[in-house]
Amino acid sequence: MELDDRKRKILLAIIQNYQDTGEPVGSRTISKMNDLNYSPATIRNEMADLEEMGLIVQPHTSAGRVPTDKGYRLYVDHLLTNEETGLTAAEGPQLPATHMEQLLSKRMDRVEEMLMRMAQVLAANTQYTTMVTGPHYKQNKLKFIQLSAMGGGKLLAVIVLNGNIVKNNILDIGCELDQETLGHLNFSLNSNLNGLSVEEINLPLITKVKEEAGEYADIAVKVLDAVAGAFDKEDSMPVYTSGATNIFKYPELADNEKISNLINVLEEKKELGTALGVVSPDGSKQDIQVYIGDEVPVESMKDCSVVTATYQMGDGVQGKIGIIGPRRMDYQKVVETLKATMNQLDGIFKKPEE
Amino acid sequence: MELDDRKRKILLAIIQNYQDTGEPVGSRTISKMNDLNYSPATIRNEMADLEEMGLIVQPHTSAGRVPTDKGYRLYVDHLLTNEETGLTAAEGPQLPATHMEQLLSKRMDRVEEMLMRMAQVLAANTQYTTMVTGPHYKQNKLKFIQLSAMGGGKLLAVIVLNGNIVKNNILDIGCELDQETLGHLNFSLNSNLNGLSVEEINLPLITKVKEEAGEYADIAVKVLDAVAGAFDKEDSMPVYTSGATNIFKYPELADNEKISNLINVLEEKKELGTALGVVSPDGSKQDIQVYIGDEVPVESMKDCSVVTATYQMGDGVQGKIGIIGPRRMDYQKVVETLKATMNQLDGIFKKPEE
DNA sequence: GTTAGCACTCAAACGCATAGAGTGCTAACA
DNA sequence: TGTTAGCACTCTATGCGTTTGAGTGCTAAC
User: How large is the average pLDDT for residues B116-131?
Assistant: First the structure.
């Protein structure tokens, strides 16, 4: 069956009305809208067709229609491909824009705090739940290592990666080192390792570092372990969430067991990586993904939709942002907000880095 | 009216039965218990007295009795003062004990991770929600500062406090420093400030540091700001929570609005400090506090009870742990678990530190 | 192709009766 | 004097049939 223009309009009307009310939409409601001046009967005929096409359903016989996942997919795909249709993206004085600038004007140095704030702002603006992964460092390089004696047989190793990611590690070395030895170790490690990615730190290099460390070879090994740990994915991939309680606003999600499962996933954070998907290597700058209902790869989110985007932070460092909302979420607003945020981040991180 | 032994027993029976079922307890239920061989009528008389004393109430005329806050307070005070009655505290092979040792055997260096794990273990063991504040550093002293050049006009200041608390700060200094200058600054800062508490860093000292820094005085000031920031309460007081979804298990809390408010407070973490109360300066080692219902100083927790304890981490560093549960929580188990955990922490942090 | 009309369906709301748990009170009993 | 059996009473929760109303599909007329 053909999806002509009128059918498309009716589908859109159903989607928008259902977005606002959360209630199934009847033919009368549609017929009263200004740009669809047909009688309820006509609308009903069209709606029967749309149902046959699998784009809408009735929860029960005497109810109005609700968009299906397939219906939403059609709508969302249309949103994402036809740029002109509605996606003004980064333009215009949007709320997130002003908020963002305010929050970034503080020049936060710590990436984590900025990401947390970003999650909070997005959650507040969209009224949905937001999750943000910390940046991926895998492609990153070692900027420098700084060892300092802490006393009590402990050594502080500060490891700095490109993109100004700082990691602390307290190493238990069981003995005290004098300043000179420390200086030697520092120099040896830095001259051998600086500027390398974790893959480039290979066996010959490790052997060389160990040789140079002489009797302190075991300490050097511990430092190298710490370096590997600093690059470690598991550890360097914190996920920040915000606005978890926003889901309480949508009655269709208000089932206690479901909500408990969902909040549990948000608290444990383990599964969120799955929900956000993998960062596509060198994907297009603004690759926005929309997962609708059953498409969401996390069991307890199958009643929701998730919109994800990849953010860039200069130096090739990138991460993911995700918005979790009900299936009837305002996809247009969410996509626009995400695009605007991505653009802003791009702008901010291009200036000071290059 | 006198609270004789039989009345006390009946109160206890009501409390325990209500703990298990969450339903109001009737006279018949009590009379069937082995150690209270009286007819329901007798029990009813006693219950009427207990109600008159304000220790129990009926939700409605034809319902059983439920303990009041006052009834719980009596019970809890009795628990906490009469040590023999039931509080075996740290002894015995409790679940938390074995868990704790497992998790601490990993020798986690990072305090935060340990605290998070502790929250998780406690939440899992008690089936309630747990919150843990990071340690207070106010009384703490500066161990050393390490400045390193990061390039791009940025300086990395690593600030280490007593108790091996490490704070990173990236400072924007707008120029590059050579190694020698950096060494001077490092030396000057450390020789002047090491071993001092934040209160001891006073104006004369600051002037001296600035003088020694010469033309780099403004950089020194920035470092000092960072030091102050590292001591800052707001910043050094993260709160970790775990088991938020455990509250869904207790039907009396299952009101959607209440639960939303509660989870919101747990997510925002701002009010949790209030709930946990202030660390008493040099208070008794195991000062366990129980807040019952309306006694809880946070609005959205007034349907809950909160049990808090102060933990010690050597070097005078201490923080708070809190367990949030329904009013009918198992106070005995919670208090015992907390005492056991405190004792373990004491044991662990005394060994390696002294 | 569009629309008025109408019979039909079904969830939600409502009213009402019933069951059952639990109480307080009184009177009898040890 | 303390304990208990008996009984009337209260109030919630449950179940059930009815009503209401929103919305549909279909048919026939325009």
Answer: 94
